[in-house]
Structure formats: structure tokens, C-alpha cells
Fold this sequence. Notes:
The protein is an alpha/beta fold. It is 42% helix and 22% strand. It has a domain at 40-114 and 186-269: P-loop containing nucleotide triphosphate hydrolases (Rossmann fold, 3-Layer(aba) Sandwich), CATH 3.40.50.300. The chain is built from 9 helices and 9 strands. The longest helix is centred in the N-terminal third of the chain and has 38 residues, at 2-39.
Amino acid sequence: xxxxxxxxFKILKKIRKLLVNIYLFKTIKQQIEQExxxxxxxxxxxxxxxxxxxxxxxxxxxxxxxxxxxAFLGPNGAGKSSTLRILLGLDKATSGLTKIGDQTxxxxxxxxxxxxxxFDSVGAPDDRTVYQHxxxxxxxxGISSQRIEQVLDMVDISHKKKSKIGKLSLGEGQRLxxxxxxxxxxxxLILDEPTNGLDPRGIRWFREFIKxxxxxxxxxxxxxxxxxxxxxxxxxxxxxxxxxxxxxxxLQEVMKNLSSLEEVFFSLTEGGK
Length: 273
């Protein structure tokens, strides 16, 4: 009887040790994930921008985290484009900082391998083919041309690779912009109005695509006026107006008791009118 008790005690001791190890493993894993998420965040802190006596950005601060979609919203003229231009090194801040991970955009040796950005315009001559455009961008960023077929397939325009850019529809141009952003397999995706020109099928494709990017651990920052689509994909929300942050937080925190993100947006930017 005593032997059986000792055996049970030893077994319980082993189980306890195993459970402690599992707990420690989970704790360490969570700490590593949290640290990695912080290292792979887009950080905008106390950002200010003035043109002469006109201040267009007033102490903008927020963070876009890895593995999450962050929606950056505001009416026309709110300061979204100015913020993104500074983030991407296209303009200078009056004060404050923007960081992609632990570096500024201008500190990146091959930016496209770290950050993929897509805006309304592809930024290429109309007589250049889709494939030629991607090949030039890949070569200038030290990216293998083998990646071109992969990104064309990812955005579902492989059949358009020989088409002239000037002949693309608005939606196809949007897909090409996203393909360009994906060339370097970047950790960070910054997308401005990514669903402009997309038909319903294209919008559904984008919804699934952007969720997958976040699930794979990418840091996604997007700006869009189609609030219903934003609500369907985003984890976190930042709303600005007249150069100031009005609200920021998770989608659930921002929506609170309101029925939709659209209702939140207009209640803040138009006083509920």
C-alpha cells in the first residue's frame, strides 16, 4: 500500500513539474510574441506638421501592431495623407517621429523588402506592361524576378501581365498597386483606399486577402472611405479630423454602444449630423 502511495506521489510530482514547464513555456512564448509585436509595429508619436502659420497635424500619436489590421480614418483634409507621406519619407515633419519597427523609412536600405505601400496611382508610364513595371521595381529593390509571378497570382491578375498599364481598369490598377507592394514580401503593408475601383467580387477578394496578411503576422495600416468594408476587416481604429486624433482603440472599444463604425465616424467628425 505504501509503495502504491509513493508511486502515485511520484507520478503527481512529475505531472506537477510538467504543468509548471507548460506554464513557463506559454509565459515565455507570450513575452516573445509581445516583444516581437512591439518591434514590428508602426509607431507615430507626437507628430506635428505646419505650412507657414497653418498647422495641419497636431500631436498625432498611434501605433499599428503586428498581426493586426489598423484602420486610419478621417474625412477629406483631415491629415491622413500628410501623416502617411511623412511615414513613408515623402515629406518632413515639423516635430515628432515616425518609426517602422525601430527605423525610419529613410534608414531602410531596400524599403520594399520591409514596407509595401499602395496608393491610388501605380506611378508608371501607361505604355509599360504590368510585367515590365514589376520587373523594374523588383530590380531596383534587389528582389528576384521570380517573385513577380507569385504576386500576380496573389492578386489574381496573372492574365494581365502583358497588358499595358494604361489599358487596365481602375480595379486592375488597384490590384497592380497591391502586387507592387507585395513584391518584397514586406512585414509592413500601408494601403491607401485599396478598394477604390474594385467590383463586389474584388472587394470580397480584398477582404479575405487582408485578413490573411494579418493572420500571417503582417503589420497592416489601411486608410479607406468605405467604412462598412473597414469594419469587416479591421482590428484597431484611429479616427482623425482637422489634424487631431479624435479616438483610437480596438474596433470594439471605438464602437462601444453604437451600431456601426460609420455611425461612430459621423458622430465624431460631424457631431452626429
